[in-house]
Write a structure and sequence with these properties.
547 residues; mainly beta; four-stranded antiparallel β-sheet; four-stranded mixed β-sheet
């Protein structure tokens, strides 16, 4: 006989079974117990949804049954199927699995408020908690309900959304220019800057290439090289590393009516003064050729031709983008191109070609009365042979500066030009070092020694190959004098990335020229001309930023 007195305490069961499986709560004596109820046997405790069958009795599923000690089905007092409590342990871990339809009372432990809303949300989740995805340039985060939240725009300093749904500074694999170097995006951030090579020194749209004046392959743009001709780009621009040097050294003195340079007993520099410190830069290997300048004239006389933009042409790689410090007005910086006062100096439009032909070839100041009789190098039409490789002359300062800006650079400061010619702290007497230039035009084109071109005594750029400077620039001594950025003025100390930019009577020129004497070839020599001046002895080269 089965005892019906008070049952022993309930035993806790291990609930680690497959979600959704029914569990029976057993008594220590082996009987299935009934949860005490206060209503009818078929009523459910408050807050629990009880599924029923069509007859109104509890709906038992096939996987749930009640067993008694005597092997008979445990019937409820009213003769209906036993009211066994099935606890939905599968919902305890928040998965929402339940025993609905199993024939047992259903306790939904997957929701926090006793409703089935959380279970429904779980079953319709479209993403995992805290996952992210891109929506254009914005990021969406997956909420706790498994739904994507509103998109949040990436910040300005990390504007790109990557494949992982994260905001990055840049998109992987893309490139950009930093001055004349290239950066590649890796892992969402810009990598180290790789300087453009000297042969393709101009960075545009994340790619190293030729400056505008050499993008068309023609005589005087792609025909430079050793001895005055070859297949090298005439826009080659070697990098000059920064450093400190003395701007004043090896003073020029006069003895018995002849100028000469005073050197130390060991041939080294003397009277060093006026130190200057410079950041790195590029300085074009060759003087600007007729062929390169022709590309500029084609541009400014074309439909899109225009003078430089106001404020352009500064050394943006220096002083946080402000450019060179103005040693003539401490606390101020390089102003760049002055469109209000200077743009009228640049003839533009289809009708301007005759103006350029006159200024570069027929103007009185560019028809030399001395021997040689006509040393201007410009021709009204492209020339054949090496004539396009001659240095352009008869340009004024404004035209030289405007060309360099259009070509992706700027005029070198006086300190930059001299630093390259002096070999920096080497303080060289001549760009090639010490020793006379001789009369063979091997080191410099000067003193009318060059006679292969009898009409001008000017050689194709780069002809004096042995006169290369410390960083590879040619014709830094002789050939033609060169415009620089500065106004001519006494040096101001100290000079750290400086130029004298307060107006005076003349712009500084450097370098010596084809009919000048040997003294004009020394690296520290300096002169000056009015910026509107044109002369057969005057040409220029461009400088460029370095990363």
């Amino acid at each position: 006989m089965v005892r019906r007195d008070a049952p022993p305490p309930l035993q806790k069961m291990n609930r680690g079974f497959a979600p959704g499986a029914a569990a029976l709560v057993l008594l220590g004596c082996g009987l299935v117990t009934h949860e005490p109820t206060t209503g009818s046997p078929d009523s459910a405790p408050a807050g629990i949804s009880r599924p029923v069958n069509s007859s109104g009795s509890s709906a038992l599923g096939s996987s749930a049954f009640v067993s008694t000690a005597d092997g008979t089905d445990g019937a409820s007092p009213d003769g209906t199927t036993a009211d066994a409590i099935l606890t939905n342990t599968g919902s305890l871990d928040g998965t929402g699995a339940d025993a609905t339809g199993s024939g047992a009372e259903d306790v939904d432990a997957g929701s926090t408020d006793g409703t089935s809303e959380d279970v429904a949300n779980e079953n319709t989740a479209v993403c995992g908690p805290a996952a992210t995805q891109c929506s254009g340039s914005s990021v969406q985060t997956c909420g706790l309900n498994g739904q994507w939240e509103s998109a949040v725009a990436c910040p300005n300093d990390a504007p790109f959304c990557n494949a992982l749904g994260l905001c990055n500074i840049c998109q992987n694999g893309t490139t950009r220019c930093l001055f004349n170097g290239v950066q590649t995006c890796t892992a969402g951030t810009w990598g180290d800057t790789v300087a453009c090579p000297a042969s393709t020194p101009n960075c545009a749209a994340g790619v190293c290439g030729q400056p505008p004046s050499c993008q068309v392959s023609a005589a005087g743009t792609s025909t430079c090289g050793p001895g005055g001709s070859g297949t090298e780009s005439c826009c080659a621009s070697p990098e000059v590393p920064g450093g400190t040097y003395y701007r004043t050294y090896d003073p020029i003195t006069e003895d018995a009516g002849r100028e000469h340079v005073t050197l130390a007993a060991d041939g080294g520099p003397t009277a060093e003064a006026d130190p200057a410190t410079l950041g790195g830069f590029r300085l074009d290997k060759y003087l600007v050729t007729v062929g390169r300048f022709r590309q500029y004239v084609n541009y400014v006389t074309g439909s899109a031709g225009a003078p430089p933009a106001n404020g352009s042409g500064i050394h943006t790689h220096l002083n946080g983008g402000l450019g060179l410090a103005n040693s003539g007005a401490p606390g101020t910086y390089e102003p760049g191109w002055d469109a209000t006062d200077w743009s009228a100096e640049i003839a533009t439009g289809a009708g301007a070609i005759s103006t350029w032909d006159t200024n570069l070839g027929s103007a009185d100041s560019c028809v030399s009365p001395a021997s040689p009789p006509a040393a201007d190098t410009w021709t009204n039409a492209p020339s054949i042979g090496i004539l396009e490789n001659l240095p352009i002359n008869c340009v004024n300062w404004y035209e030289a500066y405007a060309f360099c800006i259009w070509d992706g650079g700027f005029l070198p400061s006086e300190a930059e030009w001299e630093y390259a010619a002096a070999g920096g702290s080497q303080q060289l007497e001549y760009p090639w070092g010490a020793g006379d230039a001789g009369a063979g035009s091997l080191y410099a084109i000067y003193d009318d020694y060059y006679t292969s071109n009898d009409s001008t005594h000017i050689a194709p750029v780069g002809s004096a190959l042995l006169g290369a400077g410390y960083w590879g620039q040619l014709d830094l001594a002789g050939e033609v004098d060169e415009w620089t950025l500065d106004w001519r003025a006494p040096y101001v100390d100290p000079c750290i990335n400086c130029a004298y930019l307060t107006p005076s009577s003349s712009r500084a020129i450097r370098g010596g020229e084809f009919s000048g004497g040997v003294v004009s070839l020394v690296a520290p020599g300096r002169y000056g001309f009015d910026p509107t001046f044109r002369e057969v002895y005057l040409g220029f080269r461009c400088a460029r930023s370095a990363p």
